[in-house]
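Lab notebook: predicted structure, single chain.

Context: the supervisor wants predicted structures on file for every construct in the current expression panel, including those that have not yet been purified. This is the next one on the list. No modifications to the sequence; it matches the entry in the shared construct table.
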Amino acid sequence: MKTRSVSTAFAGLLFVAVLSGCASSQHQSSTGEYVDDMVITTKVKAAILNDKLANGFDVNVETYKGVVQLSGFVTSASGHDKAVALASSVSGVQSIKDDIVVR
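Prediction complete. Output recorded below exactly as produced.
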């Protein structure tokens, strides 16, 4: 009986935690926004990796509420432009924050 009440209390706490995690604020994304951002990040990384000219770029991708931040290094200005263009072509991208450095 004691085990049942502990598991019920744990389930209740878990439920409350999940519900509070679904809310969005200015500094925190909702669960749905987080998943959308993960999908955008994955699509941008895949686009860069699948492009023959861009493959091998040392570019990091992070997304927050549809804003994609590109950082890292490329070897030429054309490589920089290609990485930004590939990221811009992905659906769901609201804007690009470009922190790529040309070496």
